[in-house]
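Project outcomes to date are best conveyed with an example. Our students and postdoctoral researchers have been running inverse folding experiments weekly, and each run begins with a structure described purely in C-alpha cells. The record below, which covers 631 residues, was selected by the lab manager from last quarter's runs and is presented without edits.
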C-alpha cells in the first residue's frame, strides 16, 4: 500500500493522526517496509483506540476501505495469506511468545504486544485459579451458615445466591453476574459473613472492597453498611465485614506518570479476599493488572452485570469471562457439593450439559429479580431488550397500563423541545424551589435524563443547553452567572484529597447559614451528611441536567428519560439501551424514532479479542447482528 492511499485513509477519517504516526514509527522499525506493515499497524492502532483488543485480519482481508472515487482507485486491504506473509517478513511482527512490537496469533489476530501480554496473563491467571478447589473448609459449619444466611423461601426455583456462596467458598476466582435487583451486593455481604465464620475465632480475614469509579465505590460502601446490619450472624462477624471501599486504582496504588501500580505479582496486596463491584466497567489492562496483584492463595470475587455496556477502554472482559455461562452447567463434583450443602436440586438439563469446563464452576448468574416482576414493566422491558426481542420491547413500551415504561416518538426538533419542556418543568421545578441543599439533592436525583450520544441536536451538550434555556425562560434559574443557584454539577475526575470522584453529582446553592449569596456546591456524604465545596476547588466537572448513558453506569435513579438521536449512530446498541433502562428503579421513558430504537436493540457490540477463545474456545453471538466498532 503506497503512501498516497494512506493519506487518503487519513483524510477520510478512517485513520487518525495517532494511527498514522504509530504506523510510520512501526514502518521505520521495519526498515521502511511501508507497504508490508503500514496498513496493519495503522489499523491495529485504530481498532484498539475504539475498544477492540486486536485486529481480526480475516475480517479486513480483501475489504475495500475506500471505494473508487473521482478517478482514484479503491483502497483495498490485501488478501489474508499475502497480508500475513508480508507482516511476518518485516521483522517487527512475531508469534505469541516472541518479543516483538506486534503479535500475530494462529487465529489471524494482530495485537499490539502489550495487549497480547495483558490478555495472556489474565487468561492464564483465571484458568490457574479456576482449576483448584480450596480445601480445609468446615463443611458442617458451612452448611449451617448457608441455612442461616440464605433462609428458605416458597420459591421452587434454584436459589442461585446459595450457589454463588458455595462457589466463593471453594474457588479462588468467582464471578457473580446479574441485573439490577438480583441481589448481587446482598449475596456478597452474606458470602463475607460465611467466610469470616469459616475463619473461626480469628475473624481477621483481610478483605478489600473495590470498584472502578469513586461513585461506584461509595455506593458499594453504603450498600454493604446497610445490608450487614440485617444479617443473621454474630455482631463480631458484622463488625469484621468492611465498609471501607477503594477505587481499583487507589487499592493498587497508582505510580504517578506510569501505567503500572505499586501492587503487582511481585508485590501483591496483603489480602485474603478481594471483591470488585461493577466489573463490567473494568478494561483489559486494568483487569490484568488487578488479577496479578491478588495473591495466588487469595479469593478474587467479581460482581457485575455482563449484559451492560463494556468498559470505555479496550476489552469486554466480564462479557468474555461469562460468555459461555448463558447455559447453566457445572462439573459433577461441584453439583455434588451444592446438593450436599444445601437443599437445592439441579435439573437434569444442568446435570447432563456436556461441554463443561472447570471455569463453569466459577461463574454464577443470578436470575431471580427481587425488585421487578418478571414479564412486565422495567423487568420485562430489560429482559426483552437483552434477548433482542424488538417487537416485545416495543409492545411493552406502548401498552404498559401502569405507565412505568413509555415510548414517545420524535416527530420533529420542535416536537422534541415541547416534550422535553413538559418533562423538565415537571421533574426539575420542585428541586429548584427548595432552599435546603439536602432536599434539593434528593429531589434532583429522583429523575435523570440520559443521552445516547454526546454531539448533535439530541446529544448531551445540546440537551443540557436546551434545559438551561427552558428553566431560565420559566424563571427557575438565573444564568447570568456561571455558578447560579441550582446548577447541577457532575465530577469527571477523581480528587482523593477532597473525596470527590468521577460520577459524583452535586448541586450549587447559597452557603448554609451564612446569610450571603456566596455559592457552594453540595454533595451527599457517605453517611448521609452534606459536604460543601467552593466552586474553584472542584476537580474537572460539567453541568449535568443530562448525562450520557456511559457516564450513568454505576448509578441508580428513580425515573429515567432516555433520549435517542434522530438517526443511527455506531454507538447505539442493545447494551446501551439495556444499561439505560436498568438505571431506573421506578419508570423509564424512551424518546426517539422507532426505527432508531429497533436498530439499536438489534445491534450487538462485539469487541474483538482472544480472551473468550482462550477461556472457552470458539465464540458466537446469538440473535441480532454483530457490529464491528471499527468502521
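After processing, the design step wrote out the following sequence:
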Amino acid at each position: 500500500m503506497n503512501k498516497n492511499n494512506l493519506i487518503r485513509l487519513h483524510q477520510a477519517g478512517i485513520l487518525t493522526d495517532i494511527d498514522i504516526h504509530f504506523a510510520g514509527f512501526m514502518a521505520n522499525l521495519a526498515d521502511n517496509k511501508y507497504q508490508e506493515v503500514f496498513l496493519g499497524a495503522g489499523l491495529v492502532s485504530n481498532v484498539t483506540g475504539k475498544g477492540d483488543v486486536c485486529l481480526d485480519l480475516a475480517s479486513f482481508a480483501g475489504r475495500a476501505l475506500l471505494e473508487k472515487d473521482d478517478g482514484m482507485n479503491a483502497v483495498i486491504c490485501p488478501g489474508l495469506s499475502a497480508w500475513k506473509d508480508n507482516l511476518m517478513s518485516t521483522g517487527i511482527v512475531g508469534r505469541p511468545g516472541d518479543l516483538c512490537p506486534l503479535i500475530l496469533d494462529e487465529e489471524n489476530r494482530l495485537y499490539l504486544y502489550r495487549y497480547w501480554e495483558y490478555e495472556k496473563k489474565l487468561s492464564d491467571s483465571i484458568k490457574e485459579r479456576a482449576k483448584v478447589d480450596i480445601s480445609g473448609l468446615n463443611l458442617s459449619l458451612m452448611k449451617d451458615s448457608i441455612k442461616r444466611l440464605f433462609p428458605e423461601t416458597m420459591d421452587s426455583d434454584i436459589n442461585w445466591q446459595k450457589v454463588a456462596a458455595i462457589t466463593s467458598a471453594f474457588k479462588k476466582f468467582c464471578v457473580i453476574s446479574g441485573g439490577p435487583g438480583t441481589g448481587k451486593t446482598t449475596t456478597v455481604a452474606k458470602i463475607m459473613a460465611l467466610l469470616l465464620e469459616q475463619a473461626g475465632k480469628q475473624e481477621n480475614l483481610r478483605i478489600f472492597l473495590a470498584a472502578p469509579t469513586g461513585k461506584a465505590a461509595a455506593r458499594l460502601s453504603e450498600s454493604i453498611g446497610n445490608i450487614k446490619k440485617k444479617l443473621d450472624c454474630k455482631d463480631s462477624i458484622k463488625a469484621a465485614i468492611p465498609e471501607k471501599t477503594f477505587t481499583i486504582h487507589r487499592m493498587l496504588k497508582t505510580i504517578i506518570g506510569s501505567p503500572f501500580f505499586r501492587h503487582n505479582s511481585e508485590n501483591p496486596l496483603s489480602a485474603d479476599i478481594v471483591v470488585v463491584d461493577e466489573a463490567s466497567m473494568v478494561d483489559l489492562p486494568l483487569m490484568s493488572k488487578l488479577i496479578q496483584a491478588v495473591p495466588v492463595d487469595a479469593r478474587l470475587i467479581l460482581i457485575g452485570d455482563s449484559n451492560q455496556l463494556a468498559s470505555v477502554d479496550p476489552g469486554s472482559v466480564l462479557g468474555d469471562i461469562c460468555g459461555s455461562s448463558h447455559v447453566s452447567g457445572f462439573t459433577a463434583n461441584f453439583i455434588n457439593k451444592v446438593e450436599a450443602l444445601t437443599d437445592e436440586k439441579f435439573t437434569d438439563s444442568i446435570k447432563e450439559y456436556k461441554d463443561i469446563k472447570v471455569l463453569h464452576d466459577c461463574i454464577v448468574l443470578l436470575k431471580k429479580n427481587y425488585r421487578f416482576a418478571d414479564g412486565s414493566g422495567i423487568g420485562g422491558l430489560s429482559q426483552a431488550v437483552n434477548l433482542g426481542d424488538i417487537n416485545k420491547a416495543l409492545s411493552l413500551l406502548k401498552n404498559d397500563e401502569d405507565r412505568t415504561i413509555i415510548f414517545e416518538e420524535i416527530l420533529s426538533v420542535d416536537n422534541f423541545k415541547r416534550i422535553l419542556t413538559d418533562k423538565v418543568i415537571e421533574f426539575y421545578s420542585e428541586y429548584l424551589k427548595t432552599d435546603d441543599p439536602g432536599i434539593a439533592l434528593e429531589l434532583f436525583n429522583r429523575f435523570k435524563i440520559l443521552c445516547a450520544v454526546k454531539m448533535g441536536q439530541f446529544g448531551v451538550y445540546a440537551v443540557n443547553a436546551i434545559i438551561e434555556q427552558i428553566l431560565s425562560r420559566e424563571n427557575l434559574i438565573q444564568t447570568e452567572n456561571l455558578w447560579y443557584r441550582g446548577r447541577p454539577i457532575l465530577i469527571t475526575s477523581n480528587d482523593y484529597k477532597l473525596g470527590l470522584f468521577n460520577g459524583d453529582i452535586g448541586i450549587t446553592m447559597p452557603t448554609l447559614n451564612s446569610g450571603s449569596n456566596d455559592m457552594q456546591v453540595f454533595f451527599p456524604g457517605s453517611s448521609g451528611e452534606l459536604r460543601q465545596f467552593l466552586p474553584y476547588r472542584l476537580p474537572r466537572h460539567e453541568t449535568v441536567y443530562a448525562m450520557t448513558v456511559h457516564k450513568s453506569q454505576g448509578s441508580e435513579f428513580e425515573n429515567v428519560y432516555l433520549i435517542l438521536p434522530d438517526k443511527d449512530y455506531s454507538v447505539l446498541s442493545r447494551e446501551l439501551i439495556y444499561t439505560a433502562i436498568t438505571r431506573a428503579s421506578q419508570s423509564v421513558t424512551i424518546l426517539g424514532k422507532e426505527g432508531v430504537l429497533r436498530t439499536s436493540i438489534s445491534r450487538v457490540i462485539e469487541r474483538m479479542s482472544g480472551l473468550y477463545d482462550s477461556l472457552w474456545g470458539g465464540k458466537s453471538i446469538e440473535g441480532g447482528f454483530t457490529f464491528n466498532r471499527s468502521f
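The chain has four domains: 3-122, 131-365, 372-410+569-576+587-605+623-631, 413-563. The chain is about 40% helix and 15% strand. The training component of this project remains on track.
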